[in-house]
Amino acid sequence: MEISSHQSHLLQQLNEQRRQDVFCDCSILVEGKVFKAHRNVLFASSGYFKMLLSQNSKETSQPTTATFQAFSPDTFTVILDFVYSGKLSLTGQNVIEVMSAASFLQMTDVISVCKTFIKSSLDISEKEKDRYFSLSDKDANSNGVERSSFYSGGWQEGSSSPHSHLSPEQGTGIISGKSWNKYNFHPASQKNTQQPLAKHEPRKESIKKTKHLRLSQPSEVTHYKSSKREARTSDSSGHVSQSEEQAQIDAEMDSPPVGYQYGQGSDVTSKSFPDDLPRMRFKCPYCPHVVKRKADLKRHLRCHTGERPYPCQACGKRFGRLDHLSSHFRTIHQACKLICRKCKRHVTDLTGQVVQEGTRRYRLCNECLAEFGIDSLPIDLEAEQHLMSPSDGDKDSRWHLSEDENRSYVEIVEDGSADLVIQQVDDSEEEEKEIKPNIR
DNA sequence: CTGGGGAGGGGGCCC
DNA sequence: GGGGCCCCCTCCCCA
Q1: pLDDT > 50? residue A382
Q2: Which of A173, A227, A240, A258 keeps 20 to 30 A from A419, CA to CA?
């Protein structure tokens, strides 16, 4: 006979003991703030503590003290509250740090939930953008989703699916039922978890990453490839099956603790964890990459999440970085390079002209123009400037066009590649008027 | 098949 | 922290 409330009751009791500092035999110091806890609970919840306390098992008479500087007390509060309640309080503000801390502490279930949270946030973001761009989309749902979600890792007996996943849309739910603590000991038990790594994986870049990160990683597939690239990768080596992807996650989970491997500002006072490396670096929860700045980590994370918040208003191609969009726009749509596309010679407004082919622009020298028998066609530079000039506002609305401008945009886009438009360009003037895509 | 060039993408770092 | 520049690498196309 099994009493279903026993587990939750037991956890509640332990939580009460923690709050009242009863039987607490472990102190965790986080940036000067002391957290009391039970080593049994920490051992059962975190791979990191398991390793730490295992080494300390022969000295059980001594209270264990651990010090962390890799994350804030607030973050550790979230983690500890989860350990003792199964409830994870995630917000858009803390999710990265909680995930980083969970990675450090080898709490794979927390990492999974954070990943799901981030992914869901991105989904929402994408939906909102799509809705914004699509005037006809009246059926968009999931409005007003609370970005701060409360994840309840249950000890509930009735949780049938041990790996059910939540999204912020769902609000509250169960992480992994009564067996959540098992993950910490046996990360491989996540093999069957339906946890997507991310909505959009970066294109296959394993070779490069291997070089940079000194870690072999399976190829990854982006969903934003150009058609040809997509066709090639989707049916060849670029394709990664769900199981392979999961295997990657498992490999990642099986890897040594972040702090142990990279220093990451951690310090365990009573134990001898190496800490030679620079402190206060930001560790990517998806890969071994470490950056110095949080902003760089945020940028780096986009290559895992596939988030591409910067669409080119001229061709629709999306970019994960504004500078990449700018570069793309200058190169593709502005013909900034003063080089003849055919003969590669340097051209100026006197020796060559800008050719417009659909939304693409490039320069041809007069000789090549004559060779191809293309006559100059007038182009409304003013309109072009209006078309390309971003308006004020947030990053999504910067490119929004007035109705007239929008019309001209559509016309140009629909020009197709067959029609070539020659534009007289004064280089000096163009530089002054330089069009800034998506830029303030 | 191969090499060159274009384009995209990632990291470091400065402002 | 965001924007932007520079550098480097990879992929892809094309001659």
Answers
A1: no
A2: A227
